[in-house]
């Protein structure tokens, strides 16, 4: 009976943790593109800097990681009684560290692809293309972690792909002022490549979670995000050094249309928002699945669309509306399928009454 109560309490806590991570992922996924677009619109031109900002905010994670460490220290008597070694603030073992170091470099590559795309595309167009990562996440999740497919999830994948195709066919009419058709196509291709790569990274992380030889806790998830971001930042730092971006930052700040102070505020806020997005994604994979994390990115699309139209006065053409509708259709289809599957599992778990 006590074990049943403890198990139920653990499930409730995990659901709360899932909800929190979903919220911070949506905040980061919506806010990141909007704020970095502000950088580009008002004079920012450093693509490698944009890539750098997507991972360099990881030091803020030391705060929750330290809090987690303090909590573990307070429960030290229980830890010692179980024969576990002394608490450490970093608990990740070397094999796991090396794996996530490689994934961090892949994330850095994904960030530079996305940053190049965002430099040439309107926010609303960019997020619609990025939303197709759900399709790629679904495919890679099926291959890597044997994700179960339903007619609803298949329908979601098809709708999202159709939405991206329709958007691509209308590319020439959606260019921003002064942008060539070649730049638009290049931005589209790079953003789509970023969606494919991120669609691979999410299931890969889930696979590592399952194959890891040490227990995955949320404290370890924080460490994982720090390692991912650290190596993603190293990747971007190399690019910035080659491109002389560090020397150019003070000069660019002086010529920023909104002022030098706002320039640095934009950089800091962007770094924080992208870190929230990354941590939320890792947390959702921990609490649920990589496909669920991909779903949250897709769910952020309509929110970012509306905010981009409101704040940046971007055009919302009819064809973009069709693409958005197809994306929403796919999103709703997936969650309806998940709802039906959950009901079925609950129904099957109820023991049948013994006929007398």
Automatic annotation (TrEMBL):
Example GO molecular function = purine nucleobase transmembrane transporter activity
Membrane topology term: Multi-pass membrane protein
Write down the InterPro entries for this protein, in alphabetical order.
EmrE-like (IPR037185), PUP_plant (IPR030182)
TM spans (from-to): 16-41, 47-71, 92-114, 120-145, 152-169, 189-209, 221-242, 262-287, 294-312, 318-337
Q: Major location, coarse class?
A: membrane
- State the compartments where it is located: Membrane
| UniProt KW keywords | Membrane, Transmembrane, Transmembrane helix, Transport
What family does the entry list?
Answer: Belongs to the purine permeases (TC 2.A.7.14) family.
Q: Mind telling me what this protein is named?
A: Probable purine permease
């Amino acid at each position: 009976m006590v074990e049943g109560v403890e198990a139920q309490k653990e499930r409730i806590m995990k659901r709360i943790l899932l909800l929190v991570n979903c919220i911070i992922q949506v905040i980061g996924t919506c806010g990141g593109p909007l704020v970095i677009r502000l950088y580009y619109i008002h004079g920012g031109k450093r693509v490698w800097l944009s890539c750098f900002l997507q991972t360099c905010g990881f030091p803020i994670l030391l705060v929750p990681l330290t809090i987690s460490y303090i909590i573990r220290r307070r429960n030290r008597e229980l830890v010692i009684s179980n024969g576990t070694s002394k608490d450490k603030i970093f608990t990740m073992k070397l094999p796991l560290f090396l794996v996530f170091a490689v994934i961090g470099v892949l994330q850095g590559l994904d960030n530079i692809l996305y940053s190049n795309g965002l430099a040439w595309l309107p926010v609303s167009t960019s997020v619609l293309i990025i939303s197709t990562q759900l399709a790629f996440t679904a495919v890679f999740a099926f291959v890597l972690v044997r994700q179960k497919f339903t007619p609803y999830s298949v329908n979601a994948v098809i709708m999202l792909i159709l939405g991206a195709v329709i958007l691509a066919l209308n590319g020439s009419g959606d260019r921003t002022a002064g942008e060539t058709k070649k730049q638009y196509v290049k931005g589209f291709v790079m953003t789509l490549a970023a969606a494919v790569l991120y669609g691979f990274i999410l299931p890969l992380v889930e696979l590592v979670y399952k194959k890891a030889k040490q227990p995955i806790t949320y404290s370890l998830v924080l460490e994982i995000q720090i390692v991912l971001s650290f190596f993603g930042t190293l990747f971007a730092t190399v690019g910035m050094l080659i491109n002389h971006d560090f020397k150019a930052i003070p000069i660019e700040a002086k010529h920023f249309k909104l002022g030098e102070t706002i320039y640095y505020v934009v950089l800091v806020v962007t770094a924080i928002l992208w870190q929230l997005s990354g941590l939320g994604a890792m947390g959702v994979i921990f609490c649920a699945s990589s496909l669920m994390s991909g779903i949250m990115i897709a769910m952020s699309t309509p929110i970012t669309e509306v905010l981009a139209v409101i704040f940046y006065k971007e055009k919302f053409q009819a064809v973009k509306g069709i693409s958005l509708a197809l994306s929403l259709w796919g999103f709703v289809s997936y969650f309806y399928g998940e709802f039906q599957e959950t009901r079925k599992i609950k129904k099957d778990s109820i023991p049948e009454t013994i006929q007398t």
